[in-house]
Q: What sequence folds into this?
């Protein structure tokens, strides 16, 4: 299963971006999904999670109130709307599918770079 995250780019602090995650097959429409990020020299960190139905979401404290995760199972896509971006949000963002345990996902995609300038 290959997941693909896209929608990253360069944005000024305070700006917004919307990331999307897609995959071939039924993976997204049958899985709980997550977003993670990894900044240079840092470990990968959890950003957000959404249940299969979309009724349950979780966010890290660092993005709560600024980021919104959503999904469209018919379109087989998961989104991460990022508002009020800060330079510390700069990282490669990854989507992940099929939750196996706490913050453990079976499938991972290639990331998309998000750079926030001050």
A:
């Amino acid at each position: 299963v290959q997941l693909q995250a896209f929608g990253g780019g360069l944005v000024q602090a305070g700006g917004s971006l919307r990331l999307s995650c897609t995959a071939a097959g039924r993976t997204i429409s049958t899985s709980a999904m997550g977003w993670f990020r990894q900044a240079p020299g840092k470990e990968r960190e959890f950003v957000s999670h959404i249940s299969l139905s979309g009724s349950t979401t979780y966010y890290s404290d660092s993005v709560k109130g600024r980021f919104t995760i959503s999904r469209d199972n018919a379109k087989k896509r998961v989104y991460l709307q990022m508002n009020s971006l800060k330079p510390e949000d700069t990282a490669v963002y990854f989507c992940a599918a099929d939750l196996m345990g706490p913050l453990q996902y079976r499938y991972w995609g290639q990331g998309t770079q998000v750079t926030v300038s001050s």
Summary: The chain is about 0% helix and 55% strand. The mean pLDDT is 94. The two ends are 37 Å apart (CA to CA).
